[in-house]
Amino acid sequence: MKNRAAPPRRSRVGRTAxxxxxxxxxxxxxxxAVGIPSDQAASPSSTVESTVESTDDESAAQLxxxxxxxxxxxxxxxxxPPVGEAPGNPQAAAALRPFVNDLTGGGIxxxxxxxxxxxxxxxxxxxxxxDAILGAVAxxxxxxxxxxxxxxxxxxxxxxxxxxxxxxxxxxxxxxxTAPVFDAADAAYTVDRYLGRIAxxxxxxxxxxxxxxxxxxxxxxxxxxxxxxxxxxPLAQNPAILPSITSFDPDxxxxxxxxxxxxxxNADIIxxxxxxQNRTFVLTVGGEGYCIGDIA
Length: 296
Hints:
Radius of gyration: 42 Å
Number of helices: 9
Largest sheet: 5 strands, antiparallel
Shape: globular
Helix content: 25-40%
């Protein structure tokens, strides 16, 4: 372009260049004064973001404070006679406390209706001495292998694992310094509950094997005939030993033999075909009390 341009045209270009330079200078001046701000000034978007972040921080702080202020406190211990805690097992005292309150507030009749895991014939004699029970449960408890136990001057109060898990623990009560005794009533009632489940008439709708085990654990300790070669209980290996039944006679359920370790209970049942049968149940004592190991 420079080689082709004539002098007059070059002169014209030179004259028009002055206003262009001035315009560029003016634009430059505007840029420095009112154009795009320098890096040191905050942009509108960054200001908005900062404001939003600040608002979010304040909202989060307010929400945190509100949440902290409205977090419910642990429920207070309900009023009633004191029940000592079992170190490491806070559920134990919490499960026994409703029973103690019912026993002192309502008496034998109230706890009989709720303690369906205990033979009804045992309740009046086991729970009659309220003062002895209160004297025991006021002390701290000991968490043992199978049960949590409170010991008082004259009575010991023990609750099994299944009772603790239920939230309403019906205890075994026995004299201080002795061991709990599982008698014929306990054995017969275990079979009674077992047959009630199979016949579809459990003593309580919550009386299921998963919550309240009645079948002995599958461990190689079963030897009712004294062979010296223990095995796992047959009923644990084959839960279907007893066929489906339609009914049974509660009055026929009674203990027929005991040898110190094993107890035999007989019962009359009506099977699914309508036929009458007399069956023999062999029980022993496990972690939850009497359990059934075999049916013949």
